[in-house]
Amino acid sequence: MEKKEDVYRTVTKPSTEILYKDRKSKFYAQVHPISSEDDVKPIVEGLRKKYHTANHVCYAWQLGTENLMYRANDDGEPNNSAGMPIYGQIQSFDVTNVLITVTRIFGGTKLGVGGLIQAYKTAAQMALESAKIVKKTIKVQLRLQFEYPFMDIVMRTIKQKNLDIVSQKLELDCELVISVRLSESEEVFQLFDEMHGVDVTPIE
């Protein structure tokens, strides 16, 4: 049975903002942790307020581990000259659950599409290089239901396998929710599934 990949790379706090300059245009770039698409708008609006002279707040984000969602936004720059070069760096650094913003203050000289692509890409790259990227483990939860007499064997297995208990209800009918690394989930599921008197179900 092949092991599932269960580690991903992300950031847990915003990176320090970096400044990249090209022909008097200023590009302020930053990496932000996000947990849903709803996190994006307040961050972008906050940057528009902070840099009220900015011409563009361009960004790209990616969410998820197995089913990836992403978006790239040029915010008025020529098509694919800003958002996609930023997104390319998210792919290059292999990070997820992140938003990268690049705020541009125009310096009077046009950079052309090629120049813009290079500038947004470089700014995003510099922001990611300054960010503290961490590895996180994907975990899944299993619900165990059993009668009290089976408590001993269930607890012994949990201890042997070094599993985390998320919640427990210990009465005549017991219910435990345990957290398991994705790569070990099938093996652990099978273990409890074959255990007499124990009902195991994955929690979606």
UniProtKB/TrEMBL annotation:
<dbReference type="InterPro" id="IPR020568">
    <property type="entry name" value="Ribosomal_Su5_D2-typ_SF"/>
</dbReference>
<dbReference type="InterPro" id="IPR023582">
    <property type="entry name" value="Impact"/>
</dbReference>
<dbReference type="Pfam" id="PF01205">
    <property type="entry name" value="Impact_N"/>
</dbReference>
<feature type="domain" description="Impact N-terminal">
    <location>
        <begin position="23"/>
        <end position="128"/>
    </location>
</feature>
<comment type="similarity">
    <text>Belongs to the IMPACT family.</text>
</comment>
<protein>
    <submittedName>
        <fullName>YigZ family protein</fullName>
    </submittedName>
</protein>
<dbReference type="InterPro" id="IPR036956">
    <property type="entry name" value="Impact_N_sf"/>
</dbReference>
<dbReference type="InterPro" id="IPR001498">
    <property type="entry name" value="Impact_N"/>
</dbReference>
